């Protein structure tokens, strides 16, 4: 049975990934920050689902969760993310908010990978998918929400490096744009539903092999230019 761990699974794309992976019969686990959300998820998915409570910026909590998870993990999805502070233009920056955005969107995915690496190494087909965004593309010069854009551009570089470093171990590392999705972050006017996005992401997760490592793909499987 395929095992999956999704960070930030209490709402949005993460919740839908969990719901659909449960329907596929996978062995599903995920993380939330709020213990009350954890309780409601446990009620909603009483079988084959394990929920862990941690903030992705908390290194010790991540290590504890990975140890408690125990055993083999096939697919890790770095999904948790933030859009960043209200003031995030290059000429008017909330620097504390910028630092927090980098901590969650850029540093935390690597922290999560490092914590769960022992579990991934036990899998016969380990895959790491980090949800990035086309807003981080270097080939597209726009300046709105620059803290968010910079955090996603930086996580692309970090994960590209990780793909190189884990190649010999046979651990595939990919970056994924989930589409413009109708969640709290994407807003009600976005292009696609969380259901459509999650279905695409799970199909990519299911079919990813080490031959795909180091690539940046859209939710529909097409390549995203860096
Ligand atoms: P939501 O805002 O709906 O959900 C964000 C999730 O991340 C929540 O579960 C939230 O938990 C969690 N999270 C935020 N900060 C932390 C933290 N410090 N520790 C643990 N969990 C945290 O966003 P989406 O579902 O739309 O986005 C999911 C991913 O997709 C993000 O990485 C986002 O950047 C990316 N993305 C989304 C797009 C869109 O159109 N929606 C487009 C491109 C990329 P909590 O409930 O506790 O706040």
From TrEMBL:
Q: What Pfam families does this protein's entry cite?
A: adh_short
InterPro entries per record: NAD(P)-bd_dom_sf, SDR_enzymes, SDR_fam
Q: Which GO terms describe its molecular function?
A: oxidoreductase activity, acting on the CH-OH group of donors, NAD or NADP as acceptor
Family named by the database record = Belongs to the short-chain dehydrogenases/reductases (SDR) family.
Report what the protein is called.
SDR family oxidoreductase
Q: Which organism is it from?
A: Oricola thermophila
